[in-house]
Amino acid sequence: MQLFLYEGHTDFVFLNLLAQYGLVLSFFIILILLLLISRLIAVSNMMKDSFGKLLTIGGIALITIELIYNIGMNFGYLPLAGMPLPFISYGLMPTLIHAIVIGVVLSAYRQKDLQFNIHS
């Protein structure tokens, strides 16, 4: 059976992968993204610098909201919007933005032991 999905490579990539490869790959993708989010939460808890912690929490929020909204949108629970699946959807800008977010989090994690005192 051939299934036609409008924008099956961008916004509806999760539904396309579910239709083509089944539940195993879909659960694997969700598991990998949840492991990424849990690792980002662990990194956020290790930070001493409040600005780095806020940057990390912002990255967590961005990836989590996009993951939940994309899956909810694919199954019809949320209205349709141009919300990409993090690191999976096709396109330059979503991939570039997610790479920049992870780069900022890694940069903040690299300096996690530094504590800046502005008022001294």
From TrEMBL:
Keyword annotations of the record: Cell shape, Membrane, Transmembrane, Transmembrane helix
PANTHER family according to UniProt: CELL CYCLE PROTEIN, PEPTIDOGLYCAN GLYCOSYLTRANSFERASE MRDB
Signal sequence segment: none
Protein's name according to its UniProt entry: FtsW/RodA/SpoVE family cell cycle protein
Keyword Membrane recorded: yes
Native source species: Oceanobacillus profundus
A Pfam family of this chain: FTSW_RODA_SPOVE
GO biological processes: cell division; regulation of cell shape
Compartments, record wording: Membrane
Highest taxon, organism lineage: Bacteria
